Amino acid sequence: MITGIILASGFSRRMQTGKLLLEVDGTPMVERVIQAARASLLDEVVLVYQNADVKKAGEKYGIKTVFNERADEGQSASIKIGIEEASPETEGFMFLVGDQPFLNAATINLLIAAFKQAPHNIIIPVYNGRRGNPVIFPSTLKDELLALEGDRGGRVLIEKMPDRVSLVSIEDERLGIDVDTEEDYECARNRYNQNGR
Description:
alpha/beta; five-stranded mixed β-sheet; three-stranded mixed β-sheet; globular
């Protein structure tokens, strides 16, 4: 089985607002990610949150929600909490970010298929030459993931283990867009209006 862990407990410092609840086509960004995860072949989905309204978005879709009381420690804290809440039977952890509004179930499923072909590898999507999210780590790296510190997350392991990385090319670069700034958000809204669903 594969567990999807949605990392949605950041402070959105660059935007000065709760960006995950900003809407693209009338739906909060984090809810769009939850919808994609629920519609995919992921066996379970865990939402790591700190904002009560983000939690409500998860409850609306019946996924497991867990509060991150250590959010100030950076992304590594969210990763650890998600892993601790995952089923002990899981073979892979897919880490999704809550600010990737165009991610869809088909892309998630493509990455899952790649993981099933290489279950000991770290699976990373590449959007028009640029690495992005979501990333799958095999459960055999659970201890290494639980030992992470700070805000760099799984990138540390990716850099340490280049021979265990499998890249999956995704043609539509729009699917990989994440929103970190006001400009990113405006760009995402404009891209939606130009491209539709």
